[in-house]
Amino acid sequence: MASNSINLEDVPSESLMTELLRRMKCATKPEKRLILIGPPGSGKGTQSPIIKDEYCLCHLATGDMLRSAVTAKTPLGIKAKEAMDKGELVSDDLVAGIIDEAMKKPSCQKGFILDGFPRTVGQAQKLDEMLEKKGVKIDKVLDFAIDDSILEERITARWIHPASGRTYHTKFAPPKVPGVDDVTGEPLTQRKDDTAEVLKSRLETFHRQTEPVIDYYSKKGIIAKLHAEKPPKEVTEEVKKVLS
Protein backbone atom coordinates (compact mmCIF):
# COMPACT_ATOMS: atom_id res chain seq x y z
CA MET A 1 0.00 0.00 0.00
CA ALA A 2 1.38 3.44 -0.90
CA SER A 3 2.65 5.44 2.06
CA ASN A 4 0.19 8.29 1.47
CA SER A 5 -2.84 5.96 1.31
CA ILE A 6 -5.54 6.37 3.95
CA ASN A 7 -6.32 3.38 6.14
CA LEU A 8 -10.14 3.24 6.04
CA GLU A 9 -10.20 1.54 9.46
CA ASP A 10 -8.98 4.83 10.95
CA VAL A 11 -11.72 6.92 9.32
CA PRO A 12 -14.72 7.59 11.63
CA SER A 13 -17.87 5.64 10.61
CA GLU A 14 -19.85 8.86 10.37
CA SER A 15 -17.40 10.27 7.78
CA LEU A 16 -17.51 7.03 5.77
CA MET A 17 -21.32 6.96 5.79
CA THR A 18 -21.55 10.64 4.81
CA GLU A 19 -19.19 10.06 1.87
CA LEU A 20 -21.04 6.87 0.85
CA LEU A 21 -24.41 8.65 0.89
CA ARG A 22 -22.91 11.54 -1.09
CA ARG A 23 -21.60 9.14 -3.74
CA MET A 24 -24.95 7.33 -3.98
CA LYS A 25 -26.72 10.67 -4.47
CA CYS A 26 -24.12 11.72 -7.05
CA ALA A 27 -24.50 8.48 -9.03
CA THR A 28 -27.93 9.67 -10.23
CA LYS A 29 -26.73 13.12 -11.34
CA PRO A 30 -26.17 13.83 -15.06
CA GLU A 31 -22.67 14.81 -16.17
CA LYS A 32 -22.02 18.56 -16.57
CA ARG A 33 -18.99 20.47 -17.80
CA LEU A 34 -19.28 24.16 -16.98
CA ILE A 35 -17.25 27.34 -17.35
CA LEU A 36 -17.79 30.38 -15.12
CA ILE A 37 -16.89 33.71 -16.72
CA GLY A 38 -17.12 37.07 -15.00
CA PRO A 39 -15.05 39.99 -13.80
CA PRO A 40 -13.56 40.10 -10.27
CA GLY A 41 -16.29 40.62 -7.68
CA SER A 42 -19.09 39.31 -9.91
CA GLY A 43 -19.94 36.46 -7.49
CA LYS A 44 -18.32 33.43 -9.15
CA GLY A 45 -16.63 32.51 -5.85
CA THR A 46 -19.99 32.59 -4.03
CA GLN A 47 -21.84 30.43 -6.58
CA SER A 48 -19.18 27.84 -7.48
CA PRO A 49 -19.29 25.88 -4.14
CA ILE A 50 -23.11 25.75 -4.38
CA ILE A 51 -23.00 24.45 -7.99
CA LYS A 52 -20.19 22.01 -7.09
CA ASP A 53 -22.21 20.42 -4.24
CA GLU A 54 -25.56 20.45 -6.03
CA TYR A 55 -24.27 18.70 -9.19
CA CYS A 56 -21.34 16.69 -7.71
CA LEU A 57 -18.74 18.44 -9.86
CA CYS A 58 -15.11 19.23 -9.13
CA HIS A 59 -14.08 22.89 -9.00
CA LEU A 60 -11.03 23.61 -11.15
CA ALA A 61 -9.70 27.07 -10.28
CA THR A 62 -6.68 27.37 -12.56
CA GLY A 63 -4.73 29.75 -10.29
CA ASP A 64 -4.97 27.31 -7.35
CA MET A 65 -4.20 24.34 -9.61
CA LEU A 66 -1.05 25.99 -10.97
CA ARG A 67 0.14 26.75 -7.44
CA SER A 68 -0.49 23.16 -6.25
CA ALA A 69 1.22 21.68 -9.35
CA VAL A 70 4.25 23.89 -8.61
CA THR A 71 4.25 22.89 -4.89
CA ALA A 72 3.80 19.18 -5.73
CA LYS A 73 6.67 19.49 -8.28
CA THR A 74 4.72 17.57 -10.94
CA PRO A 75 6.47 17.57 -14.38
CA LEU A 76 4.04 20.25 -15.59
CA GLY A 77 4.41 22.15 -12.29
CA ILE A 78 8.20 22.29 -12.75
CA LYS A 79 7.76 23.73 -16.26
CA ALA A 80 5.20 26.25 -14.95
CA LYS A 81 7.61 27.34 -12.19
CA GLU A 82 10.39 27.91 -14.75
CA ALA A 83 8.08 30.26 -16.69
CA MET A 84 6.92 32.05 -13.51
CA ASP A 85 10.53 32.50 -12.28
CA LYS A 86 11.39 34.20 -15.57
CA GLY A 87 8.37 36.47 -15.14
CA GLU A 88 6.71 34.89 -18.21
CA LEU A 89 3.07 33.87 -18.56
CA VAL A 90 2.47 30.14 -18.25
CA SER A 91 1.72 28.81 -21.76
CA ASP A 92 -1.80 27.74 -22.77
CA ASP A 93 -0.50 24.21 -23.45
CA LEU A 94 0.84 23.94 -19.91
CA VAL A 95 -2.38 25.19 -18.29
CA ALA A 96 -4.44 22.84 -20.52
CA GLY A 97 -2.13 19.98 -19.44
CA ILE A 98 -2.65 20.76 -15.75
CA ILE A 99 -6.44 20.85 -16.29
CA ASP A 100 -6.22 17.55 -18.21
CA GLU A 101 -4.37 15.97 -15.24
CA ALA A 102 -6.92 17.32 -12.75
CA MET A 103 -9.88 15.94 -14.75
CA LYS A 104 -8.67 12.39 -14.10
CA LYS A 105 -9.43 12.68 -10.37
CA PRO A 106 -12.42 10.62 -9.07
CA SER A 107 -14.06 13.85 -7.83
CA CYS A 108 -14.30 15.01 -11.48
CA GLN A 109 -16.18 11.89 -12.60
CA LYS A 110 -19.48 13.78 -13.00
CA GLY A 111 -17.85 16.79 -14.63
CA PHE A 112 -16.26 20.06 -13.59
CA ILE A 113 -16.58 23.79 -13.08
CA LEU A 114 -13.76 25.72 -14.74
CA ASP A 115 -13.00 29.06 -13.14
CA GLY A 116 -10.23 31.36 -14.43
CA PHE A 117 -9.77 29.50 -17.72
CA PRO A 118 -10.24 30.05 -20.62
CA ARG A 119 -9.38 33.77 -20.47
CA THR A 120 -8.69 34.12 -24.19
CA VAL A 121 -10.20 32.72 -27.41
CA GLY A 122 -6.93 30.81 -28.01
CA GLN A 123 -7.34 29.09 -24.64
CA ALA A 124 -11.00 28.30 -25.39
CA GLN A 125 -9.99 26.62 -28.65
CA LYS A 126 -7.23 24.69 -26.88
CA LEU A 127 -9.74 23.49 -24.26
CA ASP A 128 -12.24 22.41 -26.95
CA GLU A 129 -9.53 20.40 -28.75
CA MET A 130 -8.51 18.70 -25.50
CA LEU A 131 -12.11 17.77 -24.59
CA GLU A 132 -12.85 16.60 -28.14
CA LYS A 133 -10.07 14.00 -27.81
CA LYS A 134 -11.93 12.68 -24.74
CA GLY A 135 -15.23 12.64 -26.65
CA VAL A 136 -16.83 15.30 -24.42
CA LYS A 137 -17.56 19.03 -24.66
CA ILE A 138 -18.47 22.09 -22.57
CA ASP A 139 -22.21 21.97 -21.76
CA LYS A 140 -22.80 25.50 -20.49
CA VAL A 141 -20.91 28.74 -19.96
CA LEU A 142 -22.28 30.91 -17.14
CA ASP A 143 -21.70 34.60 -17.89
CA PHE A 144 -21.76 36.62 -14.65
CA ALA A 145 -22.82 39.89 -16.31
CA ILE A 146 -22.56 42.99 -14.13
CA ASP A 147 -21.91 46.71 -14.54
CA ASP A 148 -18.40 47.95 -13.72
CA SER A 149 -19.71 50.68 -11.39
CA ILE A 150 -21.46 48.08 -9.19
CA LEU A 151 -18.22 46.10 -8.98
CA GLU A 152 -16.31 49.11 -7.72
CA GLU A 153 -18.82 49.54 -4.91
CA ARG A 154 -18.70 45.80 -4.11
CA ILE A 155 -14.95 45.41 -4.12
CA THR A 156 -13.55 48.62 -2.65
CA ALA A 157 -15.82 48.28 0.40
CA ARG A 158 -14.79 44.64 1.02
CA TRP A 159 -12.86 43.88 4.23
CA ILE A 160 -11.53 40.51 5.38
CA HIS A 161 -10.44 38.79 8.59
CA PRO A 162 -7.26 37.11 7.28
CA ALA A 163 -7.08 34.24 9.82
CA SER A 164 -10.63 32.92 9.18
CA GLY A 165 -11.35 34.24 5.67
CA ARG A 166 -14.55 35.93 6.95
CA THR A 167 -15.51 38.77 4.63
CA TYR A 168 -17.44 41.95 5.39
CA HIS A 169 -18.78 44.78 3.29
CA THR A 170 -19.15 48.27 4.72
CA LYS A 171 -22.52 48.69 2.98
CA PHE A 172 -24.04 45.22 2.49
CA ALA A 173 -22.59 43.17 5.39
CA PRO A 174 -20.83 45.51 7.84
CA PRO A 175 -19.07 44.25 10.99
CA LYS A 176 -20.76 45.13 14.31
CA VAL A 177 -17.82 47.43 15.10
CA PRO A 178 -16.22 49.17 12.10
CA GLY A 179 -12.85 47.64 11.16
CA VAL A 180 -13.14 44.76 13.67
CA ASP A 181 -13.99 41.05 13.22
CA ASP A 182 -17.32 40.11 14.89
CA VAL A 183 -16.02 36.80 16.31
CA THR A 184 -12.45 37.48 17.46
CA GLY A 185 -12.38 41.28 17.78
CA GLU A 186 -9.20 41.28 15.65
CA PRO A 187 -8.63 44.05 13.09
CA LEU A 188 -9.91 43.61 9.52
CA THR A 189 -7.75 44.27 6.46
CA GLN A 190 -8.33 44.96 2.77
CA ARG A 191 -6.73 42.86 0.07
CA LYS A 192 -4.06 44.69 -1.90
CA ASP A 193 -6.13 44.01 -5.04
CA ASP A 194 -9.33 45.50 -3.57
CA THR A 195 -8.64 49.09 -4.61
CA ALA A 196 -10.24 51.19 -7.34
CA GLU A 197 -6.92 51.43 -9.28
CA VAL A 198 -6.22 47.70 -9.29
CA LEU A 199 -9.86 46.93 -10.12
CA LYS A 200 -9.78 49.36 -13.06
CA SER A 201 -6.75 47.62 -14.55
CA ARG A 202 -8.21 44.11 -13.93
CA LEU A 203 -11.50 45.14 -15.57
CA GLU A 204 -9.69 46.57 -18.61
CA THR A 205 -7.87 43.24 -19.00
CA PHE A 206 -11.13 41.33 -18.54
CA HIS A 207 -13.01 43.35 -21.17
CA ARG A 208 -10.13 43.19 -23.65
CA GLN A 209 -9.25 39.48 -23.29
CA THR A 210 -12.25 37.66 -21.96
CA GLU A 211 -15.27 39.29 -23.60
CA PRO A 212 -14.26 37.76 -26.98
CA VAL A 213 -14.45 34.37 -25.18
CA ILE A 214 -18.12 35.11 -24.38
CA ASP A 215 -18.71 35.81 -28.11
CA TYR A 216 -16.89 32.58 -29.01
CA TYR A 217 -19.23 30.49 -26.84
CA SER A 218 -22.31 32.53 -27.84
CA LYS A 219 -21.78 31.33 -31.42
CA LYS A 220 -21.93 27.77 -30.09
CA GLY A 221 -25.22 28.56 -28.35
CA ILE A 222 -24.08 27.52 -24.87
CA ILE A 223 -23.88 30.89 -23.06
CA ALA A 224 -26.27 31.59 -20.19
CA LYS A 225 -26.26 35.24 -19.13
CA LEU A 226 -26.84 35.72 -15.39
CA HIS A 227 -27.90 38.96 -13.70
CA ALA A 228 -24.91 39.01 -11.37
CA GLU A 229 -25.89 42.34 -9.78
CA LYS A 230 -28.77 40.58 -7.98
CA PRO A 231 -28.47 39.25 -4.39
CA PRO A 232 -26.62 35.87 -4.21
CA LYS A 233 -29.77 33.81 -3.45
CA GLU A 234 -31.49 35.15 -6.59
CA VAL A 235 -28.41 34.41 -8.70
CA THR A 236 -28.40 30.83 -7.29
CA GLU A 237 -32.04 30.44 -8.44
CA GLU A 238 -31.08 31.68 -11.92
CA VAL A 239 -28.22 29.18 -12.06
CA LYS A 240 -30.56 26.32 -11.06
CA LYS A 241 -33.03 27.26 -13.83
CA VAL A 242 -30.26 27.41 -16.42
CA LEU A 243 -28.78 24.04 -15.42
CA SER A 244 -32.00 22.10 -14.84
Automatic annotation (TrEMBL):
PANTHER family the UniProt entry points to: NUCLEOTIDE KINASE (PTHR23359)
Record keywords, A-Z: Kinase, Nucleotide-binding, Transferase
Superkingdom: Eukaryota
Domain (Adenylate kinase active site lid): residue spans on this chain: 158-193
Role, per record: Catalyzes the reversible transfer of the terminal phosphate group between ATP and AMP. Plays an important role in cellular energy homeostasis and in adenine nucleotide metabolism.
EC annotation from Swiss-Prot or TrEMBL: 2.7.4.3
Family: Belongs to the adenylate kinase family.
One Gene Ontology molecular-function label: AMP kinase activity
Subunit structure of this chain's protein: Monomer.
Native species: Hibiscus syriacus (Rose of Sharon)
Name of protein: adenylate kinase
UniProt-listed Gene3D superfamilies: P-loop containing nucleotide triphosphate hydrolases
Catalytic activity annotation: AMP + ATP = 2 ADP
